[in-house]
Fold:
Amino acid sequence: MAAAFGLLYLLVALGLDRYGQRAVSGHYDAIVVAGCRVMASGRPSPALAQRVRRAVALYEDGRAETLVFTGGVGDHPPSEASAAADFAEELGVPRHAMVLEERSTSTDENARFAHEAIGDGRVLVVTSAYHVFRCERVFGRYFDAVDGAGALEAFSPRTRGALREVFATVAYALLGRL
Structure:
């Protein structure tokens, strides 16, 4: 029984990661980057850097004229939004195309505070591939229309994240946040 549960859990985790790898099309009012950890150096974590790279590529592809970076200060300053915006600027995005939401500490707050910052509209949320399913549903509570785009990390951290995401998705569902 335990082996069957473990296998089911693993398959759901892999399914969440695969779901987030879908192709993106269309135009959006904004591209929102879900917050993620900042390193002690003040630089984006590898996961946050991958999210920013994916968002910048979508921005350069003309998917939206505005990038919204979310996330407050976690274990290390600066805020996740600020570290992401600095990195995006290094990648060539002009500051006038960015909106920073620097208070949030959760996916739900990312969505709520991003909505407060930019209002209603059609948004494309960029996050780790395994996190797209939950992000689309949480952001859908605040925005008119939401699609997700997954950023791919290295396999090992992505696997750990996907396994953790199964629990987070169930918890959000039980709390009525999906």
In short: The chain has six helices and five strands. The two ends are 29 Å apart (CA to CA). The first helix runs from residue 2 to 19. The mean pLDDT is 93.
